[in-house]
Amino acid sequence: MLQADRECRKCTYNENSSAAAYDSFGLNSSQIDAVKSCISAVQCSHRPSAQLIWGPPGTGKTKTVSVMLYRLLQLMPSLRILVCAPTNTAVLQLAFHLVSLIIENTSESKELFNAVLLFGNKERLMKKAGNNKKLSKIFEHLSKGSLVERRLVLCTPFMSSCLRDKVFDILVIDEAANLKECESMIPLASRRINHVVLVGDDKQLQSVVKSTVCLHYKII
Questions:
Q1: Which segments of the chain have a pLDDT < 50?
Q2: Which pLDDT score is estimated for 121?
Q3: Which pLDDT does position 7 carry in this prediction?
Q4: Would you state the pLDDT for residue 165?
Q5: pLDDT for 3
Q6: Does 5 fall in a domain?
Q7: CA–CA separation, 146 vs 162, rounded Å?
Q8: Among 15, 71, 104, 197, which residue has the fewest nearby CB atoms (within 10 Å)?
Q9: How far apart are the first and last CA of the chain?
Q10: CB 36 within 8 A of CB 181
């Protein structure tokens, strides 16, 4: 993990939970450090922060992000979190990992479960869920509810454009290397975001442009 900012000297808070507290998540020491560092940065109210979680394919980035989101929901009840991923498939997979953690690791699973919202085109999300019963069940619950009631919203960057009038404290972008800069700017323009966490690998597949207009003018 690469950290863009040093620790704030004014803050007394620090995510100093022992490594044993993370044993049930199955994270290694590097992943635990990444989660702790991001949480400590988000807790700081004195200055904004930018964090980068990097790792080659198959190193557990999505799992690490899921644990981070789970801990943020646990530790900071007033925090508003916007989570974006390049595609509906990626959004659903991240939602599945997060919900699985909530169900398996806390007695307050119902409360945290009800704090999460899948925001987007319901028809497309349902199509991506397909015949996967677990994904379909998660989709059915998480796609209901209001934006006011839910503390963590998952969507694609494009759909985040519909949330410009909503207030969020932190933005997390999974598979950030798969996005064009202009796509990343859509959720970054959301109101009052003070903390950003980018997750991905610059060696993974680049963003795919399907627009014939972009191809014609070589905007790729």
A1: 1-5
A2: 75
A3: 56
A4: 85
A5: 44
A6: no
A7: 14
A8: 104
A9: 28
A10: no
Measured distance CA(80)–CA(72) in Å, rounded: 10
Residue environment code for 14-45, b if the CB has 16+ CB neighbours within 10 A, otherwise e: ebeeeeeebeebebeeebbebbbbbbbbbbbe
Query: Are 204 and 175 a contacting pair, CB within 8 Å?
Result: yes
C-alpha neighbours within 13 Å on the C-beta side of residue 183: 22
Residue 61's identity, in one-letter code, is: K
Residue 11 domain-assigned?
Answer: no
Task: Give the C-alpha separation, 166 to 146, whole Å.
Answer: 12
What CA–CA distance (Å, rounded) separates 213 from 62? Answer: 33
Amino acid 66: pLDDT: 94
Domain that holds residue 124: 19-217
* CA dihedral sign of residues 7, 10, 11, 17: positive
Question: Residue 71: how many CB atoms within 10 A of its CB?
Answer: 22
Residue 172: inside a domain: yes
The DSSP call for residue 153 is E
Domain count, the chain: 1
Which helix (H) or strand (E) covers residue 195, if one does?
strand 195-200
Joined tokens for residue 2 = 């690469």
**220 is written with which tokens?**
């790729």
Q: How far apart are CA 23 and CA 186, in angstroms?
A: 36
